[in-house]
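HOLO CASE FILE
Compound: LLP
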Amino acid sequence: MSAASTAHPSGERPAAPPSGSPPFAVLKFGGTSVQSPECWQTIERLVRERLAEGLRPIVVASAVAGISNELEALLAAAVEERHEPGLRRIEERHRALAAGLGVDADAVLAGDFATLRRVASGAALTGDSSPALQARVMALGELMSTRLGAAWLRARGLRPAWVDARELLVAEAPAGASERKRWLAAACDSDPDPALAARLAAADGDVVVTQGFIAGDGRGHTVLLGRGGSDTSAAVIAAKIGAARCEIWTDVPGLYSVDPRLLPTARILKRLAYDEALEITTSGAKVLHPSCIPPVARHGIPLHVRCLSRPEIEGTVVSAEAADAVAQVKAISVKKGVLLVTIDTPRMWQEAGFLAEAFAVFGRHGLSIDLVSTSQTNVTVSLDSAMNVLDTAALDAVLRELRRLGRVASIGPTAVVSLVGREIRSILHILGPALEALEDERIHLVSQAANDLNFTFVVDEEHADRLARTLHGQLFQHRKEDALLGPSWHELFEGQRADHVAGPKAWWRARREDLLAAAGGRTPLYVYDRPTLTAAAEDLRGLTAVDRVFYAVKANFNRDILRLFHGLGLGFECVSPGEVALVFDLFPELDPQRVLFTPNFAPRAEYAAALARGVHVTLDNLHPLEAWPDLFRGRDVLVRLDPGKGRGHHKHVKTAGAVSKFGVAPEQLDRLLELVAAAGARVVGLHAHTGSGILTPGNWEETARFLGGAAERFPDVRFLDLGGGLGIPEKPGQTRLDLAAVDANLRRVRQALPEGIELWLEPGRYLVATAGVLLASVTQIKDKSTVRYVGVDVGMNTLIRPALYGAYHEIVNLTRLDERPTEEVNVVGPICESGDTLGYERRLPACREGDVLLIGTAGAYGRAMSSEYNLRPPAAELLLD
Ligand code: LLP
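Model generated. Tokens follow.
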């Protein structure tokens, strides 16, 4: 696309840049795209490229990733006079970025830091956390990131003009808008604004740097444009000044044919029409905020979605030119957390105004309806719970009112699975085979929009991912790269995996010959690599803020691995008498204080046995103290608390929060203290484990802060056990857990804790997952319908994670490691269930009977969870030195 092109066949003629001025290019950078010095290096390069193209770049930036949340929390904390730690974190984060950029933080940000302190102290004094104040505080995130960015660009020899976005954009409060909406989710029009264009053209410098997300209200106040508002800012500015294009730079390279986290064979969509992009973004994709599309659509401004860490990828271009006439499905989207409400009544038949009456009830309760289907006697509507912030009480109230109209039921959680594309109606007949995937699902609602851009099914939430995967396989698997479909996520990111974990630098590549030799006639076989196990243990022992690491035996109870970890000085976390017995069988001299017993809903006798052994015992419920106080008289115990928010790679492994069975809830602490006193026990440790497979470095810090707060009520507490859960990247594109950040965060928490309190971790996965691979032999190949199946001798009895959690394990053909992948296949096992599939749509070279396939990151919860289902014995194991 040439710089001067402003094609707008479907839109109004936009404002043009003042005559003689170069055309504008608006470049928006989200939070993850401004968070590091490397990000700003790329931004500098992009700005120079735009200048070389003869464009005038307008940089619109978000707050550094995570800072908007911090600022939001800060005000809430300030009202309770707990704002100091938050203030420190925000300052430290910006100081660290400034240091990385070689910018003097005090010179650039002192004013913003001071404002932030003043406002937080003010809120603490007055208790005011009004939406107006919130807007002012949150705006500081964007103001600070852009000031740092501008200072860096200047230091690099550019001439940035830093402009306050509150002077550029004036937001209108819609008539009757609530106070919150007026300050925190205001809207700007996208009318052409020649004065703004003239101002930006004349700004002194070669690149304008301004903020996303914030605007003025025309009376000198700050307002916010709502979450995702930076995308909107960029689009609105582009629309108002008639930019040649609007570029959204983010952490994924465009819109995809399906969520790549669901299916790595998801394809980049190279070009889309505005209405298609709007449809995709409103029906689940989170790459782009839907509200940024109408402003650019109105003026026919091309919108480019691109990835800052891979700027060479073209990404997605949304423009009027992409409105081709060919009917085809372009994407499959899944939106979860949807609730259906159905009303059955004979009254609908021939009665005027029934629907209006029903809809009015939802309207009165502030609930917006997404999909509707009606028949003579039934109306079913869907409510998007994320949008509607449904709580049970609100829903009950709605259902009660609706009962006056007929028989009412709610169904949920459900998910909306949509096929998005142009004129889908005309190709329904060729979708036949694809729709077979729906045969076994209970479809609650089908809807086809009159604009003919989507075809939607509502199914139970648990079936949605599988349905989307199957539909994607049937509709996209055989489509070649063309004007619409680009490469897959897998192809773009396969080479990008983190170091020893998987991918090109995985340990097993260098040990291929050993592995093939080991496999000979012995598959299925789990193989573990001693150097990788040792390196993982060293990683964790190197955490300076952590006093003790207990290996969670449940992840893998292989005796050689336990011996290795014992030798490396790790303790053991056990959840059953069997695990406790195993470690003492192997290490009879083991100090019982190196063993944790952390059972859940275990019988009395198990606690009694563990106490008799002298290991640390963790109570997970009040029941043991209530029912068996005599057991704990004079004893030291740990108590597991529920920190309120679970995390993890799948809902089955999120182990905190209101609906999890684990831990004592914070509101039960008073009762806990009474019971402990009555039993005459001492609580020497507090424990929390939020879940498993977590890649967010802040998780353990949050847990430590939570436990540290609770510990104030327990004078005897000496240890805080932060659980396990440290994740490892499994899928292409995932990044490693930043252990240095985990450590730095925990060091900060330690400073606030009383002297002498130890921090413990009890990880399983991190220590063993990447060190283990599972070797399988190809048994049979089969083509059926449109799918090629590669059968192997590993079934779900050997590795249940894909069937149980939809887990992704890398699969390569070890025999043909040097051959290029040429086929997309489903890798399946011999067990009599369709869920016995190890990988869907995997790219492999043509496989033959007898080839050895390697299944990666199989060291954790692989052999440990295997069974004899179908009377197929669990796989053998081997530790390579
Ligand atoms: N501590 C407690 C109290 C736990 O419940 C768990 C794991 C751990 C520590 C160790 O978590 P890790 O560091 O391994 O994430 N089978 C699932 C994982 C289940 C985890 C159960 N609890 C999977 O294959 O992903």
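CASE NOTES: The longest helix spans residues 131-155. The longest strand covers residues 328-344.
CLOSED: yes
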